[in-house]
Design a protein that fits this description.
single chain; 338 residues; alpha/beta; Rossmann fold; Dihydrodipicolinate Reductase, domain 2; nine-stranded mixed beta sheet; six-stranded parallel beta sheet; 11 helices; 26% strand; globular
């Protein structure tokens, strides 16, 4: 196979964004789209010059579709992925992988049994500040990483789009938004072993919860990462600080990025051009990697085990907050790590 013929399931904002990324992947072509909204899917299909369906199972029955990009609301990630695998189609599933770890396991086992690739869309790891900081850690510039602080929170009020405020469809804030930061923490530190979390949810009405989650994740390498997430502050913040035995990094997303080595008197600012480098469009990169793993029959770069490891942390956080205790994570399916 030298070209993968792709079907898109879900023609909303993220689906279109992923297809924009796929425009730069010469070894992929869009052949059909599906969405429950006939108006939306027909308009997008006419724009792209492809076939359209309102039932994803009709798209999956097509012989000219090799793989599908699934960009439907969170609740439907697992059932649509399972349908796709059973139809023999390779799968790119947008984050979060599923609503809970049990669904993730079923997705993985079904794809494995069908012999199809399963890649999870965790696009934040390909954005400049996050990608650059990961490289610094991997290159050993900070020494052994032992502490991280990752914050991403904003003002109360929910997310754009009616379905994103429905907990029955979205699940919770950690799945819909904070799974990005959880994924980043795993990449930095490796295998998670325990979670302790505190939550507050008395600020907003009609939005997914919690309003605030304060979480500490312990890792097998002895490191810990403190994450603060939600929609609770009039100020808001997106920043990270990483500390190792040789130095530290701190950045505010798309703003400042500083590094300071142990023993140095001053921190060193890194300019935005250095951070950006020859950065490929993040959505293009994640789709390209999925396409390449299909063509070359290689393992996905973000397999289902990685997606499930993130969801296991989310599941553990809610148990911890509810039962007011430290929760161990057994058998995490991926290590991440640098």
């Amino acid at each position: 196979m030298d070209k993968v013929h792709v079907g898109l399931i879900g023609c909303g904002g993220m689906g279109k964004s992923l297809m924009k990324g796929m425009n730069g992947v010469k070894s992929a072509s869009l052949v059909a789209v599906s969405d429950v909204s006939e108006k939306a899917v027909k308009a997008y299909a006419e724009e792209k010059g492809v076939a359209w369906h309102t039932d994803h199972r009709e798209l999956l029955a097509r012989d000219d579709v090799d793989g599908v990009v699934i960009a439907v609301p969170n609740k439907f990630h697992a059932p649509v992925t399972i349908d796709a695998a059973q139809a023999g189609k390779h799968v790119f599933c947008e984050k979060p992988m599923a609503m809970n770890a049990a669904e993730c396991r079923e997705m993985i086992s079904t794809c494995d049994a069908a012999g199809v690739k399963l890649q999870i869309g965790q696009v934040l790891r390909y954005h400049g500040d996050f990608k650059y900081s990961l490289q610094i850690v991997r290159d050993g510039e900070l020494g052994d990483l032992f502490y991280g602080y990752i914050a991403r929170y904003g003002t109360p009020g929910g997310l754009p789009g009616a379905w994103r405020s429905d907990p029955d469809i979205v699940g919770n804030w950690l799945l819909e938004v904070s799974v990005h930061e959880i994924d980043y923490a795993r990449l930095l530190f490796g295998k998670p072993v325990a979670v302790t979390a505190w939550m507050y949810d008395q600020l907003s009405e009609g939005t997914v919860k919690p309003d605030m989650c304060n979480m500490v994740v312990e890792f097998a390498n002895g490191g810990v990462c403190h994450l603060v997430m939600g929609q609770f502050s009039a100020l808001g913040k997106v920043e990270a600080e990483l500390s190792g035995t040789k130095g530290a990094v701190r950045f505010h997303w798309n703003k400042d990025f500083v590094v300071r080595k142990m023993g140095e008197e001053q921190e060193c600012s890194v300019d935005r051009d250095t951070i950006a480098g020859n950065l490929e469009l993040p959505t293009q990169r994640e789709v390209r990697e999925w396409i390449e793993c299909i063509i070359h029959d290689t393992p996905p770069t973000i397999p289902g085990s990685e997606g499930m490891a993130n969801i296991q942390i989310v599941d553990a956080a809610f148990v911890s907050a509810r039962e007011k205790r430290r929760v161990s994570i057994e058998g995490s399916g991926a290590t991440g790590g640098c």
